[in-house]
Amino acid sequence: MKRFTENYNNQTFDILIIGGGITGATIAYGAALRGLNTALIEKNDFASGTSSASSRMIHGGLRYLATGQLHLVHESLLERRILANIAPNFVIPLPFIFVIYNYMHTPLWAMHSGMTMYELLSLGQKKAWDKSKKIPHFSYLSKQTIAKHFPQIKLQNLQGGFLYYDYRNHSPERMTLSFIKSALHYGAQVANYTQMEKFIYEQTSKGTQIKGIVARDLLTNRILKLKARLVINAAGPWADIVLSRTGQNKEIKHIRRSEGIHIVIDKKFSDKFVFASQSPDSEHFFLIPYREKTIIGTTDKEYNGNPDNYKVTKESVDELLDKVNSALKPNYKIQYKDIAYIYGGLRPLVEDTTSDVYRASRKYEIEDEEKNGIHGLISAEGGKFTTSRRLAEKVINLAQKKLGYKPSKSTSADQHLITSKISDIEQFIKKKAAQYPMMNNRQIRYLIYSYGSEIDNIMNLYLSNPKLQHFFNKDGENLAQVVFAIRNEMAQTLTDIIMRRTGIGSLGMPDENSLNLIALTAAQELNWTQEQINEQINEIKQIFYFPNMLKSINNETQYDIPA
To answer: Which of 9, 166, 218, 261 is the most exposed place for a label (fewest CB within 10 A)?
Structure first.
């Protein structure tokens, strides 16, 4: 992977995408797959915004049934199966136990009806390519059975619950990168750390038309004029800010932004099941098993302000802890000392008819800005990770029409991503475990989930140099991955490596020795000075500053903590 901005030769692209999250990545893949000359820029790193701040799920949106969004649920369930097919190493069946308490507005019989509807809406889909991806039927669980699975929860007012399945997303960051890599395979050009500055205009027979953008390469400070016949705005929470730079539409529709935070704790509630329920204020929350830890999520709170200034606050952490602790016995309540890592992000919402962002729709919108007097620009707004491929399909349909190309059928649902060419994931794991006996089954499984059919590239690098065989955790994450991230995956910073190319940082702050070893290895590849090494390490430490400070807080004392 090479950043095209370093050798841009003044070519004109068919489409130029602004935004390197999952929406931009799937659009780039869909466009390149259909033969469009495609480019994508991202002002930070790929999947560094909303796409990395998820609950790590690919789901149908069970809770949206309560608001009558049947179309959204049906589409999400269809896309859930498609993603499990085309990205088998990332999308893995995940069992949920949804618990019903007396105080909830949804009684057991209504929840049973909802579960039945959820399954009915998933009927008629193509069969799973891999039999291990098949989703079992839901089942009722008694109060006693739930208590056996989750002895930590309060039994008072507990009615019972249901066991049902969705999917987990092993790594939203790497899955986004896999779409980027697949786009590159089919001819797209991409660049991270490239910021859109302003639009380029040209007078045509249609009037003033956008013909590209002026961008700044943030690594070299070089200004580039990137030419394109059509620009796609896929900037997520920044989409309305991109629109405002057109200067031609006084009625810019502002995107609503909803904050969602997650807390990773060192406690383990279950090895297998997600605990799902509602708090007394009727908002859902989850306790998700994750690598011998637990992810707690999530919040849904309106955020007003510049998304560049967003930070997780202590208030948001306290609100989430209060919500979850309301369902736990006193001895199991989560405290600051349990926190390993906190992460948060902003969801872009296009629906503005509800006063509460929690109940706002997760639908997406594709806007041809020509009707707003802006020629040459399409905006793709809203949506969620699960439906991103379908959103991209519709965007490219519109792009082909606007560019005057003959419509072509999307094939993105019919073939594996370029890094996920695995027909039987369990057999593939067995084969690679035998091929690499120096790794245990857990380590091989984790690396295959992360790298898919690229696992041999990692292992060849690992075996080529004993110095790269250092393990950072029980999952087998190792120093070879650091080198691979820089040489093959466009990683530019220590944060890129630790937080997005690997899962090292998702378990919490690496120990000092590991952090220094990763930094020194990266420095050799990227020619960092000692001053740059220190800067990179300090940036990583700032990510974990917040949870580390929380651990030292007395619960009865309030402090103003910088996030």
So the answer is: 9
Q: What's the token pair of residue 3?
A: 């950043």
Q: Phi and psi dihedrals of 295, rounded to 5?
A: -95, 130
Distance CA 335, CA 358 (A): 25
Q: Are 111 and 162 in contact (CB under 8 A)?
A: yes
As a whole number of angstroms, the distance between CA 73 and CA 59 comes to 9
The tens digit of pLDDT for each residue in 390-412 reads 999 999 999 999 999 999 999 99
In degrees, rounded to 5, the angle at the alpha carbon of residue 497 between the alpha carbons of residues 496 and 500 is 60
**CB neighbours (10 Å) of residue 365?**
16
d(CA 284, CA 423): 35
pLDDT digits (tens, 9 = 90+) for 520-532: 999 999 999 999 9
d(CA 134, CA 92): 10
Query: Using CA atoms, how far apart are residues 455 and 40, in angstroms rounded to an integer?
Result: 26
Q: Do residues 200 and 225 lie in contact, with contact meaning Cβ atoms separated by under 8 Å?
A: yes
Residues in a beta bridge with 199: 213
For β-strands 284-290 and 207-217, DSSP reports them as unpaired
Cα dihedral 139/144/149/155 (nearest 10): 120
> What residue ranges define each of the domains in the chain, with the CATH number in brackets?
4-50+173-253+362-403 (3.50.50.60), 92-167+256-359 (3.30.9.10), 425-549 (1.10.8.870)
Burial profile 464-486: b = 16 or more Cβ within 10 angstroms, e = fewer: eeeebebebbebbbbbbbbbbbb
**346, 431, 444, 457, 479 from 434: Cα distances, Å:** 43, 5, 10, 16, 22
The distance in angstroms from the start CA to the end CA of the chain is: 33
Return all residues near 77 (Cβ < 8 A) that are at least 6 apart.
Answer: 60, 118, 121, 122, 125
CB-neighbour burial class of residue 125 (10 A; exposed 0-12, middle 13-18, buried 19+): middle
DSSP track, 465-515: -GGG--B-STT--BHHHHHHHHHHS---SHHIIIIIISSSGGGSPPPHHHH
Rounded to 5 degrees, what are φ and ψ at 160?
155, -160
HEC readout, 119-180 = HHHCCCCCCCCCHHHCCCCCEEECHHHHHHHCCCECCCCEEEEEEEEEEEECCHHHHHHHHH
Task: Name residue 117's beta-bridge partners.
Answer: none
pLDDT digits (tens, 9 = 90+) for 89-135: 999 999 999 999 998 888 899 999 999 999 999 886 668 899 999 99
